[in-house]
Amino acid sequence: MASDTIVDPDFKVPAPERVGEEGKTWSHVIQNLVFTVDHKKLGLMYIGSGLLFFVVAGIMATFIRIQLFFPRSTFLDPDVFNRFFTMHGTAMVFLVGMPMIFGFANYLIPIMIGTRDMAYPRLNAFGFWVFFFSGLLLYFSYFGAPGLYNAGSAPDVGWFAYSPLTAKAFSRGHSTDYWTLAILLGGIGSLATSINILVTTFCLRCKGMTLGRMPLFVWLFVVVAFLVIIALPPLSACQIMLTLDRYLGAKFFDTQAGGDAVLWQHFFWIFGHPEVYILILPGFAIANEVIPVFSRKPIFGYPIMVAATVMIAFISLGVWAHHMFAVGMTSLGNTFFAISTMVIAVPTGIKIFNWLGTMWGGKLHFDLPMVFCLAFLFQFLIAGLTGVMLAVVPFDWQLTDSYFVVAHFHYVLIGALLYTLFAGIYYWYPKAFGRMLDRKLGFWHFWLFTIGFHLTFFPQHISGFLGMPRRIFTYEAGRGWEIWNQLSTIGVIIQIPGILFFVYNLIYSYYKGEVAGDDPWDAWTLEWATTSPPPEYNFEKLPEVRSRRPLWDLKHPDDPDWKFE
Amino acid sequence: MSSAELTNTDSDWKLPSQRKVGMICLILTESALFTIFVVAYVWYMGKSLNGPFPKEVLHIPWLASIALFGSSFTVTIAEKFLHKGNRALFHVWWLVTIALGAYFVYFTGAEWYHLIYKENLTISTNVFGSTFYSLVGLHASHVIVGLILLSIVVISSFRGKLDPGHSEHVEMIAWYWHFVDAIWVVVLTLVYFISVNY
Amino acid sequence: MMAVGATGAHAQGAGADLPTHMVADMFKPLSRPAEMIHETSLLVLVICAVIFFVVAGLLLYIVLRFRKKPTDNTQEPPQIYGSTNIELAWTVIPILITVVLILVTSRTIGEIQNAKLPEDALQIRVVGHQWWWEVHYPQYGIITANEIHIPVSSKDPAKARPTEIILQSADVIHSFWVPQLAGKVDLIPNRTNKMWVDPYTIGTFFGNCAEYCGTQHANMLLRVIVDTPENFEKWVADQKAPVPPPQTAQEIEGRRLYYANACVNCHTIGDSVSKGIFGPDLTKLMTRQTIGAGVAPLNHENLLSWVRDPQILKVGCLMPNMQLLDTEAEAITAYLETLK
Q: Is residue B71, in this structure, part of any structural domain at all?
């Protein structure tokens, strides 16, 4: 199959290069990483640093769970606990979720649309380094922020940092400033990367790659990038306002001077809710590539999938206040945001059904990427349904800010996003490094992590029903929460070896994995038409396409896709 | 299998210009940023607990507005002369644009000086001060960035570094300048026409 | 859920003999708004469960039915690109479900948020502080903290005696949440929110602050003590009754120390010169069951520990260690113990 898929058969591929192997010494390796503007290296650096921050933030989560194992536990001080959950949340959203999705976008979009690099390679490198330093800045707060009178080290205001808890009066010292500036900086990186994605997809498609023929992966990232450039500026704006408040005494969120605490919530969530879709749409993007290939069928209803994505993005700009049903909006306001939130379930449902439709009548191959995608479908179903419950305002009055919400968004961000990211890593690792990830280790990872994940987060629905609020560092005995918290903590203990198997697999297979060849999954999009790993210029000769599955056309000249489009 | 089979029948494969798409994206994201500051201004209109209030201290900046709106026309005229290859008139109109923009910045500086030292309105005086300085200041900073870009163009032209291949670069800077003007329409209407009733 | 005894019941404090509802299960509502939420929630849960079983069942069926079998040939399955009719079907069904949910939701929102309470309903003003609750009874002129006493109401609308709660905050955002009585409503500085409860049974109901509000958010606990109207009136009368003056030499010395130290800056005691408003009102301190917003039962040992150094029971709380000598702390404790 491999020889068929090279677009120009006369072209001899140079010996595969690996990131960092061009130079001999460590200083060469580091120089190479620092100076590179290659979209593939930057993509891998995004994913690598995302994984690094994932491990750090995951360790914090482990400490949080240990503290909650027993009621009235004194394992962690309240301040330490509060910093941990703030840093855990902030890091997982801004330093794990965002870079991971941008990593995939960077690596894959130019190859998928048949071009040599992103539109602005240097802006791309700038975006990465700004993000990376924003992460270091955030964590540096542990060393840099402690001031006089134990004024605190790392931020401890929660990842959405409701004012006026962030005002100078309630957050002394510089911890909140580290949070604000790190997010402001990271936002600049995300904006740069998103503009780059848009320009690349609109202006650099290879011949024949019309918008209607782009892989759904690329389509979804176009939508994500649009959401980022519309929804991220509100976050930057409110960080600027908060900084003005804290340093120049402005009154934006100063409730003593006529400022309004609720305005922060509006501004934050008009970013924060599209952000949820910014994070989850890339998960869908990966599923859109993996599910068809391992079902051996094209995606069911491509145009509807695009339309549903655009609808989700559009509606997601009008649902933000469903995070604020308890702030005392009028019944009309509450009803409006309940309706908009529920309406978003319709295109989301269409997507789930289309994935099922793709699998229906196919020949399902249970390789690791597909297994993770199937788990994603199951878990996203749960996450979506708990989301519907939260949209029912009266139910939400009970559930919001309880452990039920914690369970809900972990089902979204782990159960859906992280699982598709794992699927993506198992799927494209052979492309990036030329070797397959080990199947046996991969299944150990899958089962341990899945069992641990459900054991951790399913009980949290129940502790939410029993009135346990989120973000509490301890609880009284006898409230009925002990057993659910203990199950939850045990779940984490099971997840950890799962992650260790995964990390070990990444390293082990880099050296010892089975050699993959150019097209190990017998797939259909352009990235499989080049070598594994791809040369720096991606394609010797830029390809031309005439359907959504160019490699299918090549492999099945008697039954090409373009006849049906 | 030969690559001929992949060849598309449509031989002229046209894609939009990178610069235009990039600039549109930048303008979109900047608009979103401004929207939030505008919303904050509207949200806090009439909510200040202590003075000075807008109706006491704000005066409609006729001259500065005319200068800024006029600069949108002059930059278009300058562009036209660049297209025709008339460098001298291009320089004249481009410098007029810079001068009008610079006058606008000067006006903002003078207005702020007056507000801070004569009217005692600072960013920390009340919510009006906070929202006013942040919104107008954000706009003024964009004018300054625009002036820097305009100056780069005229300096490169004087040094002979601006060739016909750069006409799209120049056009993009003009787009940015129009955007800055368009924002001023919103700011002027909101701050100087509507909020002076409070 | 009745968990009588356990750590919920304490030897002292008003209402300590009532049954406790420690496990605040939202599916066992004991008040009208909570019950309305409960009814809506059950319907939503059922709809969601049906969707879950249908879709998950379909997924399972597909996984079993269409998995590649070892006996399969290497041919690709038929390539299907989509079907407008099927797409239409699975667009319309979710829309119909959504419409049902929207109708149910908006009805319950209106019923709870726009409920008309009787003119003479008991009104309480709750002010959130880092990390305790200040409770005012404007109709009675009573101020207390952390433990809210209200009379029981009735399922019979004619006999119902709901209580209106006005929510405000003195510093950051808090949220009032007693799941078995009502859904949560935030306490936001510079704003006034309202909610109401209408409990059917007597008992002590447990709740928490539900919006993260700083270091001791976890120990901003809440008790609503629902008693018979007669007992409630008795409690009101008791709260208004004057406090007997200290008797023993130690109590008198304690009072002197109380007024000589900074205590008066933050706490109020009745009509005395102690008029501070940053800390809880201590006028009838000993009628409460707990100390430090529920962090520990109120007894001699805990009170003494608190007076000596509040940071032991509730690290990070805004009351500083007053650096008292042991004898001083004991004297002040003895004085405080006369406040009943």
A: yes
Q: Residue C5: what pLDDT?
A: 38
Residue B26 falls inside a structural domain: no
Instruction: Reply yes or no on whether the pLDDT at B95 is more than 80.
Output: yes
Q: What is the pLDDT of residue B2?
A: 37
CA distances from A135 to A50, A180, A194, A203 (A): 10, 12, 18, 31
In CATH, what number does C18-68+116-238 get?
A: 2.60.40.420
For position C222, what pLDDT does the model report?
Answer: 94
Are C339 and C284 a contacting pair, CB within 8 Å? yes
What kind and span of H or E run contains B55? Answer: helix B54-57
Of A7, A252, A553, the CB nearest to B40: A252
pLDDT tens for A527-554 read: 999 998 999 999 988 999 989 999 998 8
Closest CB to A300: pick one of C82, C177, C219.
C82
Q: Whole-angstrom Cα distance, residue A477 to residue C291?
A: 17
End-to-end CA distance of chain C: 31
Q: Supply the pLDDT for residue C147.
A: 94
The SS3 call for residue C269 is: coil
Segments of chain A scoring below 70 in pLDDT: 1-24, 147-151, 565
- Residue C193 phi, psi (nearest 5): -110, 160
Q: Contact A178/A154 with Cβ under 8 angstroms?
A: yes
Say yes or no: C104 contacts chain A, CB-CB below 8 A: yes
Candidate from A394, A472, A477 with C-beta closest to C112: A394
Cis check: omega of the bond before B52, within 30 degrees of 0: yes
- Kindly state whether A526 is in contact with chain B, defined as any CB-CB distance less than 8 angstroms: no
Compare CB distances from B1 to A4, A208, A543 and report the shortest one's residue. Answer: A4
Q: How many domains does chain B contain in total?
A: 1
Query: What tokens were used for A206?
Result: 């290879």
Residues lower than pLDDT 50 in chain C: 1-10
Distance (Å, rounded) from C-alpha C70 to C-alpha C73? Answer: 8
Rounded to a whole number of angstroms, the CA Rg of chain A reads 24
The verdict on residue B164 lying in a domain is yes
* CB of C110 closer than 8 Å to CB of A351: no
In A243-272, the residues whose Cβ lies within 8 Å of chain B are 244-245, 248-252, 257-260, 263, 267, 270
> What local confidence, expressed as pLDDT, does residue A3 receive?
44
Q: Is A77 on the interface with B (CB under 8 A)?
A: no
| Residue B101 counted as domain residue | yes
> C20-21 and C142-145: which strand pairing?
unpaired
What's the CATH number for C249-336? Answer: 2.60.40.420
What is the 3-class SS of A179-224, one letter each residue?
HHHHHHHHHHHHHHHHHHHHHHHHHCCCECCCHHHCCHHHHHHHHH
- In whole angstroms, what is the distance from residue A70 CA to residue C328 CA? 36
Q: What is the mean pLDDT of chain B?
A: 91
Q: What is the CATH classification number for the domain harbouring B158? A: 1.20.120.80
Quickly count: other Cβ atoms within 10 Å of residue A310's Cβ.
Answer: 16
Give the range of the structural domain holding residue B63, as residue numbers without chain letter.
Answer: 59-197
Q: Minimal Cα–Cα distance from A24 to chain C, Å?
A: 45
Flag whether A touches C (3+ CB pairs, 8 A cutoff): yes
Domain boundaries, given as residue ranges, for chain C: 18-68+116-238, 249-336
> How much is the pLDDT for A21?
52
Among A241, A271, A266, which residue's Cα sits nearest to residue A253?
Answer: A241
Instruction: List the single residue in A with minimal CA-CA distance to C205.
Output: A479
Give the mutation candidate from B9, B11, B21, B139 for the A interface (greatest A CB count, under 10 A).
B21
| pLDDT for residue C239 | 93
- pLDDT of B6: 43
Is ipTM beyond 0.85?
yes
Report strand pairing: C142-145 vs C132-137: antiparallel
First to last CA, chain B: 75
